[in-house]
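User: Hey, my collaborator sent me this sequence without any context and asked if I could get a structure. I don't really work with proteins. Can you help?
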Amino acid sequence: FFMQTSELLRKLCMRNLVRKYCRGVTAERKAQLQQKVVTSAVFCGKKEGYLESLSQPFLDTRLKENDLNPKVLQLIRGENIKYVTPVIKYDRNGFKARERLLVLTQSSAYVVEMAKIKQKIEYSTLKGISTSNLSDGIVVIHVPEDNKQKGDVILQCEHVFETVTKLCILANKQSLVKVVKGSLRFRIGSGKEGTMVFTVGPEPQVFKDKTGQLTVV
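Assistant: No problem. I've predicted the 3D structure and written it out in structure-token form, which is a compact way to encode the shape of the chain:
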């Protein structure tokens, strides 16, 4: 009887402690935990740098809405901007690196150059999100083959875990995120495809190799 009472009291005590903790969690802390759960599901045991990212809180956004050009704000008016971060975009032909902004709204992702929207991807049409298993920040956003899209989007993100987590939560496409090893194929446009190769080296770099492939070290 004593053991049964002790076990019952232990369970009640634990339940009260859990209830007290849950009631004390702020909305901001709850949002962090929810995002980190998604990050874990996507990257745990798959991508280098994941463990180091655990202690780094995600920011709501890397740039504020008023940091965007007024012309861009006018073009996407009516959409609730959720997240903005600087990125490096690589051209699909030639792989020239260009500074851009990635703007995530409630319904679409935008690749922005100063006052211009270079590409818009509606989440409903998103075909996939790819990144490598290494410590690079490359993210490929795969888009459908239609006249509205120029091809898949190749980005380099400083905060890759944060950016991919925000994107797949907003798009509700967690199951479409792939962490690849060795290489991946991406669509250039007009039915053409390109290859990206991931490798390990002494210094991080991204370049077009002699075979015409984009090599990420």
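In plain terms: The chain has a mean pLDDT of 90. You can pass these tokens on to your collaborator as they are.
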